[in-house]
Amino acid sequence: MNMRTDNSRKNFIASISVMLVMTFLGFLTRKVFVDNIGVEYLGLNGLLLNILSVVSLLEGGFGTSIVYNLYKPLAEKDQPRIIALVQLYRKIYRYISLGVLLMGLAIYPFLDVFIKDGESLKYVSVVFFIFLFNSIVPYFAAYKWSLINADQKQYKLVRINLVYQVGLNLTKLAILYYTKNYILYLIIESLFLVGYNVAITYKVNQLYSYIRTKVKYKVDELTRKRIITNSKALFLHSLGGYLMHSTGNIVISSFVSIAIVGLYSNYTLITSYINNIVTNTLNSFSESVGNLIATESVEHVNKVFNTIFLLNFIIISLPVIVLSNTINPFIVWWLGSEYLLDIATVAVILINLYIFGMRISVQIFKVKSGIFVQDKFSPLIQGCANLILSLIFVQFWGITGVLLASTISVLSIGFWQFPFLVYKYTFKKPLRLYFISYAKYTLIALISWVVTYYLCYLLDDNSLIGIVLKSIISLVVPIGLYYILFSRTTEMRSLIFTYIKPMLLKIFK
Question: CB neighbours (10 Å) of residue 357?
């Protein structure tokens, strides 16, 4: 237990350190990009990322299956079995990288279909192939990423991550400022990506030197069958995930305009940082969760989930409340009023941020429980519903309709099914317990938002100082209310004394 908690703390500190650096540099880089390159190319970035994410379907969630199968041999220090799995994964990822290349080449002739009002864009073909190259590179080190993730040693990579993020963003800033050359900007990004993956490979080889052997090991037949079964199910999950999360920009670009994709990407830059912080914070516990489920009682696992679910609520609701009162004034201060989206669109963006963010903890327990097959068709149904509704709603409400389609789709299936499976197969408890907690948390967040909205409305100051003051109000009020309501609960006491207090002592020691 102590080792699991210690690794979780280390992974959390490492993840947050990198995220803070990425956030600051990301906002600065985006500002310089918009000023020197333009919003159309920003929209092209978002569009190509979404189009080429379809090639990731070839991986089909295979990485998740890898990590799941590595838990036990790593815990038992079964080196022959670890080597066998790593060798199998390396071979498969080589085939996947070739498939990604061929699939990218197949997509290229249809590129113009997805770009509306993009006449000012130049060198689109060159940009596409640079993005395709960047999609392929990570697969050559993916199996080593899986090994270090399964072993809860992500914090060992924090220096590499920091050097990569700082070096990449400072170099991109210099390119944007001095040359305004978009192609050179992308080439630099590719070079850094190659260097990053080489550094990861070298580090993993140091940590697990025993995997560098020419002796061939074979995976036992039972494990091989389990990998195939889980990978088939996870492919459907990946396909559903693509239709759910990666078709929005394509629909917006095809039916509204490429420039609107650029405006929307400024909002998603902010929300993606929030989502990444929440995900990285909770994922710092995720590999420990896999070990926990394998070794502890159902009752204890359920108690840990309740603690993590409370943490999930706190770290997603606070930024949503802050952004609801500050995001448009911040966009005006950061980029200018011409980059604003309307209030209805912003409201749906924040609602989706909360709904998807609140699912992260239960999703972690689902994956770490190995629940892949039981709902293999549900993500596909949800994704198809999202795409169909997006194509209908965009005709009436534009970008707002596309985002609203995501809201309706997730509420129809994913919102209830993830917790249903976890409570049925992992906790063996009634689902109503989850939704009672969910409803209670959401009601408290709504009350906090109403109070902060009224106070921020009275402040009526959209200067930088005003934005800072509104942010403080939007944090202090909910934190105070949360403390009053949760301080005596078992979940909050566990969160403070098991995770937060030891982490702070370790930081300031």
Answer: 23
